Give the backbone structure.
Amino acid sequence: MTCKDEYQDLFKTVMKEHLSVFEAQDVIELEQFMDLIVQADRIFCMGVGREGISTRGFAMRLMHLGKEVHWIWDDTTPGMHKGDLFIATNGSGKIGHIQYVTEQAKKSGATVAIVTGSANQVNREFADFVLFVPASVFNGTDSRAVKSIQPMGNLFEQHLYMLFDIIVIMLERRLKLSHEAMEARHRNVE
């Protein structure tokens, strides 16, 4: 197989995987997740590794939408309270320190939303809402998730970035914002 043939075979396979995940996404859950974002006074986000990178990009865009957003490990992050929304990305549902912070967020009175590819592993005692992204994850994939030829949690991590971007576009429309309004909130000191 030539490099060109292998490349084309791989990108077509990966694109089919993403299409399958998009088609399997529960849109009712998606809408409920967006409702939580719209209603929140403040939003706190957390994720680790590559799924954390996707979540950090989402936090940035939520700020561009005009929401007050904080990343859990930033030194300037304030305490959570009732009326706040905590969004934790926990692909496998089993990442210990995310579970700990989730428990603390719940105790603070914040609403807790978990985004995961393994909903059956999430501790529902501390989750007010679970958004199941049906993409295979590293270390604990839900049997309903789309399987992948890719290593570890690639499909979930990649898909999360695209799904979050689509959510932002839907929220932009729902909130009757423009690209220009979002751009006006972009950091201007770089």
In short: The domain at 3-184 is CATH 3.40.50.10490 (Rossmann fold). The mean pLDDT is 94. The longest helix spans residues 3-24.
